[in-house]
Amino acid sequence: MSADAIKFLTPDMLRLFSPELALVATLVVILVAPLIFGRSSRVAGWIALVGACVTIWLTLSVAGEVRGGGRSGLAPQSAAGMLILDNLSVYFKVILMLFMVGVTVLWFIGSSEKEDRGEEFFVLLVGSALGMVLMAGTLNLLMIVIAIELASLPSYAIVGFNKRNRLAAEASVKYVIFGGVCAAIMLYGVSLLYGMYHTLNVGDIAYSVVADLQSYRTVDVSGVAAGVDAMMPAARNMPAIGVALFCFFVGIAFKIAAVPFHFWCPDAFEGAQIEVTTWLSVSSKAAAMVLLVRLVDAFAAATGALPFAVQISSLSGIAWAIGIVAAITCTWGNFSAYKQDNIKRLFAYSSIAHAGYMMMAAAVVVHPASGASHSPIAAVLVYILIYVFMNLGAFGVAAMVAWRTGSESIDAFSGLGRRAPWIAVPMVCCLVSLVGLPPFGGFIGKLWILMSLGEAGGTLYWGLLIVAVLNTLVSLFFYLRIVKAMFFADDGLDAFTPSIPGTAMVNACAIVLVLLGVVFIQQPRDMANEYAGNLFRPNVLQQRDQRQAGGAPGSSHSEPIRLTHLDAVE
Amino acid sequence: MFLIGLTHYLILSAAVLCCGLFVMMTKRNAIGILIGVELVLNSVNINFVAFDRYRPDGGFDGQVAALFVIVLAAAEAAVAVAICMNLYKNINTIDVDRGDALHG
Questions:
Q1: How far, in Å, CA of A403 to CA of A284, rounded?
Q2: Is the minimum CB–CB distance between B89 and chain A shorter than 8 Å?
Q3: Inter-chain CB proximity A184 and B83 less than 8 Å
Q4: Which domains does chain B have, with CATH numbers?
Q5: How far is C-alpha A355 from the chain's CA centre?
Q6: Would you tell me how many other CB atoms lie within 10 Å of the CB of residue A2?
Q7: At residue A250, does pLDDT exceed 90?
Q8: What average pLDDT does range B40-62 have in this prediction?
Q9: Which of residues 26-65 of B touch A (CB under 8 A)?
Q10: Share of chain A above pLDDT 70, in %
Q11: Span A135-148, pLDDT tens digits
């Protein structure tokens, strides 16, 4: 053990870990830079931009090595890796860093219109980005908890960054208390899971849970499934597993802002600065969504050895739970958005609704239809990609209007089509795309999710599909309220010229959305299919059992399992 | 003959958890709620260490996890108290029921 423990930090592992290390280095440089350049938030902003670009470059440079299958590492040799580098984490890192560049650019645009606001902003921004990157690349319970906290703690502080603003102070207190409670409950779930299965590796826990569920359903209640360690049979009962999994998923639902753990979201978004709202609206949800997809996939993969009928029944509870939460989240978000006047609050509820759409696809991951042409994971990835551009564009326009008029209410948009047509038109593109109508990217993103729901079939998925379509109709009304204010209401407010870089950025977002909706319809999905194709699954127990089974006749006719290559550190 | 076993630790942990949940639900003072969170985290630590002590194969993941939870609790307390200070400077109270400017 001791020899293993010091050998796990090999140069090879550290090289694969270099994108995260680059983010850490960025943090340190931002903190040290004031000693050399004096306190300047512009310098910090440039360092963050460079750090994001370096991270993208490093990610792409190690991406080739995991194209054929993921790797995990940074753990003693006998244990499953703490961190995972596979196509999915590469994809998420690149998207998140691109989005961080976008948010930093938005900050630069805003800083030319407001006073200097302190370089700590970027420390917190990069810190939360690091946490999100780690969230997307781990299946170790301890690492998941640390990553979520690392993403959350800077987020709490950044929401209250404007110290003299009463709303910001209140928003950050609500956020930190809600987050602290959810994190504590999540940790309790983690400790129960550890107690029941004696491992922190989700791959093994999923395998054991599935084995337990199977024995519970088919054999007997108290018996221990064959092939699973009889470590603590007394603790393995359904209520305990249910409570532990529920507590664990509370923490993830908090990050996704799934109903009923969404209460922080509108308040935090309204109180925070608009750049912060932009950042949190996409990144925290996308990271948690990637983590959720990974977790659900671990459970789905654990059923791989079972006959198909048992596969369906053994995890349908999880599918129903995620599906129902997704449907409620989506509906709640859309109906609550309808009565909002503050644009940030409206987008907060809109982001809750979008998280609901993505969760619907995550529910499909539970039951991977064999030979499915519409991978639900790919649908989520495409949706995240498109959502980045929709939100960056919409928030960019909202930010420019808010900075000029000093008001964040929808009334500030009245007559924008006349006052500033160059940002009003891209705003329409982004809003229509957020509704999910052609010819914009949002339609394509939603289409893939609906297709994967339809292909999965069954009561639950058809029900979710209907809910999603009805919700799209509802969302039409509140997004079009903004359009109506911009083009059909005119209070005779002054025309203004928005800043050139800002106009360029939102127009670029709108153009990308049109391209994604008209020209490049298939390409993002092909790319996402490739990136979602081979998730790394650290299933130590499952592989050991397969080796022991040694191709017994019982296992040969069941679903073939995609073998992960659990990679030895050396 | 009375032996202390895993069950005793789990009962202790459950009791601390219940205290923590009770405090979180009844306190209106932000610091009070944070103390409730700390209690829950302590029950998590008792769980981790006890499960680790009584696991048959002698790994030490649980002990490591408990150390990390202590660090997380400290970090979270630092951030949360700073944020509460900030609220106090703005509205002269940390009663969470008084933070009602954001709603809807």
A1: 24
A2: yes
A3: no
A4: 7-97 (1.10.287.3510)
A5: 9
A6: 7
A7: yes
A8: 89
A9: 30, 33-34, 36-37, 40-41, 43-44, 47-48, 50-52, 55-57, 59, 61-62, 64-65
A10: 86
A11: 998 989 999 999 99
